[in-house]
Amino acid sequence: MKKNPLGSSMVVWFLVVALSLALPAQQSVSLVGCGSVIPAPLYTAWGDAYSSRNPQVQIKYLPLGSGEGIRQITAGSADFAAGEIPISDQELKESGKTIHQVPLFLTAVVPVYNVPGVSKRLRFSGKVLADMFSGEMKYWDHPDLVKLNPGAQLPHLAITTVHREAAKGTTYLFTDFLSKSSSAFRTKIGINASPNWPSGLEAQGGSTLVKMVSDTSGAIGYAELNTAQKGTAGIGLVQNASGAFVEASPESAAAACPKNPKGDLRASLTNMPGENVYPITGFSWMFVSAEAMTSSRAQALRGFLKFLFTDGQALLADRGHLPLPSRIIASVQTTLKLD
Predict the structure, then answer these.
(1) Pick from 127, 131, 322, 132: nearest CA to 239
(2) Tell me: the pLDDT tens digits for 229-254?
(3) Which listed residue, of 18, 59, 135, 337, carries a Cα 20 to 30 Å from 241's Cα?
(4) Which of 140-149, 181-190, 282-291 has the lowest mean pLDDT?
(5) CATH domain 5-106+284-335 topology
(6) Burial class (CB in 10 A: 0-12, 13-18, 19+), 294
(7) DSSP-assigned letter for residue 292
(8) Residue 304 to residue 21: CA distance in whole angstroms
(9) What is the DSSP letter of 187?
(10) How far apart are CA 220 and CA 125, in angstroms?
(11) Overall fold of domain 108-254
(12) pTM for the structure as a whole
């Protein structure tokens, strides 16, 4: 999150100024957001759709990563931000700002793998994944993996783990789940968007990670569901808290959401109870400062937010994202006073 902070801040600031100068007087509002790479194409589509209805408003989103999005919104450099990592109480305190953290859509992180000769879809437990990524499990024919996958004919092939670069929301969700599944992983690595992995290859971007796994015999990595489905690596089933092996889907991700959402929605959704719950699920958040909602730009920002949580929801599925249950949307609308 601290990588080249001055450069990133200047990019956001320069874009805000450039957009403002480029607009004539009757089109004088430009909103700039930044953060997670995952929703970048979605924000482009949302921005285009909203601007077609409201030509006086331009919207630009910079895919700088979840960690950088938090840094920018807490510094007051962006109108909004997005990410899979919640802003901590300490970060909020240090910012001196009131920042709304509202769910935007659901993110499911899936294990992706390349094990030659195995056609059967593989099953993983949180404990097995934790052992693989902590370096404790070295080969694909380890007894714990064989037990989860009877009849799969797993080879004596070295495991190569592939992980994302620092400050990524998918890593935060993945390590959150692994930390709940293994006390040893929690102690050794913990919940972290930038963990100190003991071994493995690093990939710059989710699509790159999936391709690296596809190209590397014996590799395993993790990726957001939509990104994983665009690649050729195998996508594993994951054991949930009820003991069931579940496929990531809109339905199994939605099943992880709280039944009666209230107040602070920063709660972790990983390893939630329920037979049909996909266990590596999390919110992808939008961060908006309360000050921005009362500034001279408030009307444009409020209009964009209202669009996102009404008509804009229809664009989610078309781009492979997992929509929020209606009860969560209603809670967001109340929090932001959009209804």
Answers:
(1) 127
(2) 999 999 999 999 999 999 999 999 99
(3) 135
(4) 282-291
(5) D-Maltodextrin-Binding Protein; domain 2 (3.40.190)
(6) exposed
(7) G
(8) 21
(9) H
(10) 14
(11) D-Maltodextrin-Binding Protein; domain 2 (3.40.190)
(12) 0.90
